[in-house]
Amino acid sequence: MKKLGKRYLSLILGVVLCFTTFMSVIVADASAVTVPGVDLTYSFDKASGTLTVLGTGDMYDFRDTSIGTNKTVPWSNFKDNIKKVVINEGVTGIGDYAFYNCSNLTSVSLPSTLKEIRGYGVTGGYLGNNGTSYGAFRDCVSLTDINFPEGLQKIGTAAFRGCIALKKVTFPDSLKTFGAGAFVGCTGISEVTFGSGTTELSTECFYNCSNLATINWGPSIKTINKWAFYCTRLTEVSLPDQIVSIDERAFADCFHLYDAYIYNRKCSITNLAFNNTKLTSTQDFNVHGFTGSTAETFAKNRGYTFVALDACKHEHTHINVIKAATCTEDGLQETYCDDCNTVIVPDTVIPATGHDYEVTSTSDDTKVDGHLRQYEKCKTCGYENVVLTHVEAEGSGTVNKKYVWVKGYYDYDCNATCTQSGWEKYTCTVEGCGVTQRNVVQKAGHTVDKWTVTKQPTCVEEGTKTGHCSVCNQDVTETIEKTGHTIDTEHPIKTEDKTESDGHIYKTYACSVCGQQTTQITHAAWVEGQYTPTIVAKVTCTTDGVERDKCDICDETRTVTIPSKGEHTWETTETIEPTCTTKGQTNYTCTVCGATKRDNVVDALGHDYVEQKDLAVAATCTETGSKTYKCSRCSATKTDVIDAKGHFAKQGTRVVTKEADCENDGAGHAVCHRCGEEYDYVIKALGHDYQNDEVELPDQPGHVLSTPICTRCGQKQNAEIVHKEWIEGYYTHTVITEGTCLTGEIYVDTCTLCKKSSGNVQGSPLGHEYKALRVYEGTAPTTVGNKLTVEPYSIVYTCKHCGDIDAQTGKQLFYWWDNYYYNRDSMDRTRQNYSSYMDANADGIINAKDYALLYNLNKKYLKYKEEQKNKTEESAGNNQ
After folding, report:
1. Which residues of the chain have pLDDT under 50?
2. 632 and 713 housed in the same domain
3. Is residue 381 in a domain?
4. Domain that holds residue 779
5. What is the pLDDT of residues 691-731, one digit of tens each?
6. DSSP secondary structure string, 575-628?
7. Helix (H) or strand (E) segment spanning residue 24
8. Is residue 297 domain-resident?
9. In what order do the strands lie in the sheet with 331-337?
């Protein structure tokens, strides 16, 4: 019996234990998990603070314990005791929030099987270190040691945000992408090295990494997205040739950055990529790039100092037209440096010139096909074109246009039927037009010539009729409206007045056709109990209420206003004093309606920082210092970094141990005036100073053999044949556009020896060639052609080529003759001289007859001007 009792006791205890376990499962938080992943487990060594994750596959994504039913990490209750994390081989992913705020975690070991370290964040929420995010290692403020294994492919959004103890970070070649803000606010990072697999740096990737001073670029990075290195400690940035775009504010507010080297000639650089709000002058920032590159354009647009990376200054350049532009096709040209024999601006598009049409004839074909035609021909290439205009109908509107439609030259479509409205559409079929016009078409209704009544209508029932539609060829049946009762409303057969009992008057009528009686009810008064009230808007302390009443008998309605009391009854519920970071205010609640208000709002006090002098660290020549401040009201602190001072040579201690030459840096040492230590310094290489040694080539007129020779070390570069000048007979002259009186011809010269091209060059205008129309003597100025005012004793001319009209006084014409003396058989255009004005009598030759005419015209003009002057003086005297 004793043994049986023990067995029963064990059974009972087991049942109790199972029930307790079952109940604990039921009442446990639905978001809690006991393992970090489906096929993962973990263990924790409390003595060493080591958390080990074991198994195969991916880890769960976690969230904060306060968010719904999302999973929380199994180690949430002891995460402050975790000092080291070891992820074993087999684990492929680390989930969102997995080790968030493990504040004492210093070391992480990751396996070769790991593909992804995840994170999540609200879009656009990282700017200024704000915004919601769930990075896997976010705010692990003590983390100093972590390996990123080969095989890792992605680091997610905000994955390491706020890991302020990280110093140097090296990424594997397998890493392809970073999520937005992956390392936001990692203020301890000083150096970053990228692998060969990364092609793009994400938005805000290293935002506010305020000590990041060194970037080792991988060979594949092409894009640097916006805010990627905002507010870092870079002093200079060297962007290799493979980087093709730098987005908005990528390097903004890097207050120590004064030099950017951009080696890609076509790199896309947004306007504020390097914006520094602490620069006293934009000229303090240097952009180093190649001449003619996007870097040069960017620097000039922003007012930065541009420093050319070219060995040559490109002082002598010319344009090579690779392909001349035509009317319809773009051309291509390049800028070629004659000094270094290289293309400095490649593949620049010359826009197509477009056709230069002139109208040759017109045709009004309105009655033929509804169109006007204008025939054109390009003056440059001869291409013929027809401008087709569909004629608008009389009264056409500006929006819904109507057109002339000629039968046989349009397609017609209509979807309206006898029983359904629709639209009709006209589409022009003339080639090159395609104009459409759409009109609304109402349903036509059936067209029936003869109806047969199949059922006569009565007072209360509809009748029917049938017939055959001649439009849609269908047999149709339609209803005949019921006739309705015929009632004499002036003579009811019975009247009952129930105004006092239910608020209505009842009148009974009889139909004169069928005898059926009907009763009409008229609402006369609102009687309590005979209507249903509904509150539309509740009355409050300050707003009227609204009641909607509906009659229960006849459905008549009315609106009734319920007046308010006009004011709240306020009671103070809370008084909040201001703190450093929160506002102060007084809160009130109305005791009648529950409305709330606040007043006496006081701004937050802000921190009152006091310097903690015992924590100050002085800056030295080589190391930064700091000042620490603590708020006198709360526990908030801040630290300001003091830049290292740098060595300053003591006068007379500089010793050059190696002179710099053209290609090699020099060196020296000196004693620092501040710290007394001896330090080494570098003297930058001088660079070659090449000057061209040119030898004329007798067999190639206009060309020289040019050999660049350094003036310092004598080093020579390969000699090249260089085009120096255009020699008549050794180049072809191709006219692209003929010159006119006002515009010069556009032409291209091409060397027949070296094929160098001048590019598109515009010559000087040809000038007018005038012919005298008539001598105008007169007594007062007159107008010619509604635009030209002609003085007396002048000659009016017209240009033989363009028809331009001009007029010159006798004084001006004789001045030209007197100074240039013309006696010749032919006249030149005005670009050369004034000779075309001198043929005053238009006989085609300049001789004594012209001289006599101009001489006399000049005398008359001078006399006329003298008379005008005397009249003016006389008039002025009379007015006095």
Report:
1. 1-30, 68, 123-128
2. no
3. yes
4. 770-879
5. 999 999 888 999 999 999 999 899 999 989 999 899 999 99
6. EE---SSS-EEEEEEETTT--EEEEEEE------EEE-GGG-B---SSS-EEEE
7. helix 2-27
8. no
9. 317-323, 331-337, 342-350
